[in-house]
Each structure stands twice: as C-alpha cells, then as structure tokens.
Amino acid sequence: MAGPGRVVAPRWPALAALAALPLAVLLVFFVLPVGAMLLRGLAPDGHLDLGAALEVLGRDRTRRVLWFTLWSAGLGTLLALLLGLPAAYALHRLAFPGAALLRALVLVPFVLPTVVVGAAFRALLGEGGWLAFLGWDGTPAAIVAALVFFNVAVVVRVVGGAWASLDRRAEEAAAALGASPARVLATVTLPALRTAITSAAVVVFLFCSTAFGVVLTLGGLRHATVETEIYLLTRAFDLPAAACLALVQVVTVVLLLLLVGRLRPAEETVDRAPVAPRGVRRGDLPALGATLLVAAGLVVPMAALVVASLQVRGTWTLGNFRALQQPDVSTALVVPVTEALRNSLQVAVDATWMALLLGVLVSLVVTRRARGRGERVVRRVLDGFFMLPLGVSAVVLGFGLLVTVARPPLALRDEPLLVPLVQALVALPLVVRTLVPVLAGIDDRQRQAAASLGASPARTLLVVDLPVVWRPLLAAGGFAFAVSLGEFGATSFLSRPDHPTLPVVIGRLLGSPGQVGEQSNAGMAMAAAVVLAVCVTVVMLLVERLRVPSLGEV
C-alpha cells in the first residue's frame, strides 16, 4: 500500500496485458468489418459521398422505417416497464411457493432465439391460431407484443435486483408516519429505484430498436425497423443506403450506452446484498396477480407454438418433427434437423469458451481499482468500448465480416471458428455485465493483503476472486451458450449453406411458405423452433439454479 502523500503510478503494463487480447479481437472482428461496411456504402469509390447518404435519409421509405423503429421501440419499452415493475417486486421482494420457477419462466424469453419468438407469435396470431380473431397477424401490434414478450425479463432482472437490495426501513418509517402504500411507493420506493428503472428503460429501448428476427418474421417487407431494413438493403446490394442506416444506428447505440454508463456507477456503489424476501400480504395481491398475468402471457405464445408443431391439417401428429429428418421433403431444408442442432451445439460450445475468455479479461480490466484519474478514464472508456457489440447491428457485423474475410489478408470465410467468434462477440456484453458487479463487489483490501503475504497476481486471483466469482462465471457461460444457440442475424450471412445452424434452418423454412406433400414449411419451422426452444430453456433453468441476479444489468 502507498504511504501518506505518496503518489501511486498507474498500472499501465498490467492494464495493457489484460486488455491486449480483447482489444485485438474486437478491433479485427468488430471495428474492422463494421468500418468496412460503412466505408463501402459511404465511400464506394474511395471518396466520401455524403450526398448519397443524405439522399437515403430523404426517402419516404427511410422516414417510415425510422419512425416505425422509434415509436414501436418506445411503446414496447413503456409496456415492458408497466408489466415488468409489478413482477420485479413480486419475484424479488416476496416469498411464495413457486417463486423460483416463475423467475426462471420470466427469464427464458430474454434468451429465446428471436426466430423462435417470431414463430411462436405467428402460431398464436396467424391463420388458425388461438388469437387469430384479433386480426393482428402481420400488423405492428404483433411486433410490439413480441418485443414486450422478449424484454419484460430485462425489467424484472435490472429493477428486481435493485429492489431486492433496497433497505425496507425507509419504507417502514414512511408507513409508520401514516403514508398510504401508494404514497410510500411514489415518494420513497420509486425515487430509490430511479437509476435502475431508467437503466432498464434505456436497455429495453436499445433491444427493441435493434430487434431483428422478431421483426423480420412478423413484419416482413411491410413493417421494417432500421435493423431489418439494413438486412434487406444489403441483400439488394444497396450499400449506400444500408451504410447510412447503419451509421444512424451506431450513433444512437453509442449515445444510449453513454447514458447507461453514466447511470451505472451510482447503482453499483450501492450495497447489493439482497434483503430476505417476506411473505405475501393482502396489499401485495395486485402485484402478485399482475405477475401471474405476465407469466401467462409468456406461456401462451410458446404453448401455441408447441400445438402448431404437433398438428398437420388439424390432425395431431409428429409428422412435422419426422419431416425435419428428411431433407428431400423441402428445398428449404438442406440438412436433417439433428445435424443442424449438432452444428448449433458445436458452435455454441466454441462461442462460450471464447466469450468467457474475453469476458473475464474485460471484467478484470474494468473492475480493478484505478490509480489516478488517467487510469480511471481509460478503464471507463474501455468498458464502454467493449459494450458496443450489444447494440450494433448483427446484420452489419455479419455483412461486414463477409466483405472483409472473403479475401486476403483475412481469407477466413471457411474458417470453422469464424461463426463462433462472431457469436462470442454478440454474447460478450452479457458475460461482462454478469461478472462486473460481482468482481467490483470484492473488497480490494483482500487482494492487497494476499499480495502483501507474497501471493502473485495469478495466485491472488485464484484465492480471492475465484471463490466468489465461480458461480456467476458458470451463469455467464450459460447465458453465452443460450445466446449463441439462438443467434441469427450475423450467422445468416456467415454460415455455410451445407453447414447451417438451427436458427438459420428455421429462418429458411419461415421464409419459404408453401405446402410440400402432407407437410408445410411453416409447420416444419414450428417443430424446429420447439426443438431449439427446449434446448435454450433447459440451459436457462440450469443457470437460474445458480441464483445470479445480475442478468440484464447491461
């Protein structure tokens, strides 16, 4: 330790050593391809052409896409907050039978593949679906409903984690002074949760505005967000327009991440030790009822998906599942589903160890106590930089990689680890945000004591950090594995036609409507989506048993 008045120099060599590998990977496989995508669109002949970009922004369709993205993400965020706040309270402050199961149930949609969610809502709202009478199929209402379904878990996790550690004494004092429950909520509880609620709202808006598989499946060509419009434009090789929209998206994401970054320090300085939940009282019944309604709203689309997968022309059968093993049944099915699932599992395993390796290094970089203002600024900049894959279009990343790795010096198009590496970058922010609160909560004096007793940095890591972080580390691995299983945006560009992952197979079947003999591509897509959903659900139930409350604190 430094003596009084002693100026301690920043630990630049150690910082550089920890950050070197993640920085190199992110620069080569994220910054370079995204930059290449933007340059090919904005400077096709080597000269910057802002006139083409301005022309894109002036198109009627572009304005419609931007407006639809803005209002659908805003409405989805508002509804997710209204539904998620009561559930956050009930699941993190109350003790009742089945609470752990409900927490796991609410968590699952957050990591479900977007194509699975899209397939579930098509089964629920489409022709013959349980809610077909609403007339929502192919409408913005279906897209917003799916966005809420997907993001309620973020609100529950972020706000619930803060609510669980909130000291009850202030609320009890207000109640003792005669304040009604509503007044206690408005004047004591919500102000204390303002940071968590705002952070959750920003993150949900980010996820809604960059949703891909859900919007592509439910909106098609008629209702497009910036994310799906970029995909359609790259498929049409309208690179200037795609680059312009990608630039708008990148700027928006950076601003939102800066906002979240400004909110996070105040939240992470709070003691996160959870308060023991209490039993249900009469006044808690509305929140508990709202939570059960949320759970039902999450179950119904998945139940509709399962039913649709088990029916062919109104008859109960396993025909859709059997057809998935017969590639000759449909031209959209290139390989048997077992092979596609094996491809997905293999890619997910590789993506998980890559994401964990990078995530541990990044987490150590951003959580070690800074010595000096300069080092503190560098660590915060690095923290924000490593979060960029969270919101930058996976479509832009996938197409950019397709452009940059197709020729020397990065001729990696057929490299088997390319797709896992991209999926690891997509999962990296979740891994980091799972580990950072845990590592930041370790008293640095324990590390200093170990060092003063002669322990090397590696030994200190093993005896001080690892005993605390091993369970969150396993949970982070589960999150990365689940995210990788369902990643579709970048993988749709990079996977080889004869080596597809299961989400790519589902996307092809959903994108090729029609009847092939007794089977339909849509029915086969529903069956494949059930297979993928079961795999992801099993992984997340195992993660929930680790009881790590920091998911979603991005």
Automatic annotation (TrEMBL):
- According to its record, how does it sit in the membrane? Multi-pass membrane protein
Q: What CDD domains does UniProt report for this protein, alphabetically? A: TM_PBP2 (cd06261)
Which cellular compartments is it found in?
A: Cell inner membrane; Cell membrane
Query: Can you tell which superkingdom this protein's organism belongs to?
Result: Bacteria
Q: List the keywords (alphabetical).
A: Cell inner membrane, Cell membrane, Membrane, Transmembrane, Transmembrane helix, Transport
Family that this chain belongs to: Belongs to the binding-protein-dependent transport system permease family.
Query: Where are its TM segments located?
Result: 65-88, 100-121, 141-159, 200-219, 239-260, 287-310, 351-370, 382-405, 417-440, 461-485, 522-543
InterPro entries per the UniProt record, alphabetical: MetI-like, MetI-like_sf
From the Swiss-Prot or TrEMBL record, give the protein name. ABC transporter permease subunit
Q: Name one Pfam family in it.
A: BPD_transp_1
Primary localization: membrane
* Domain ABC transmembrane type-1: start-end pairs: 66-260, 341-543
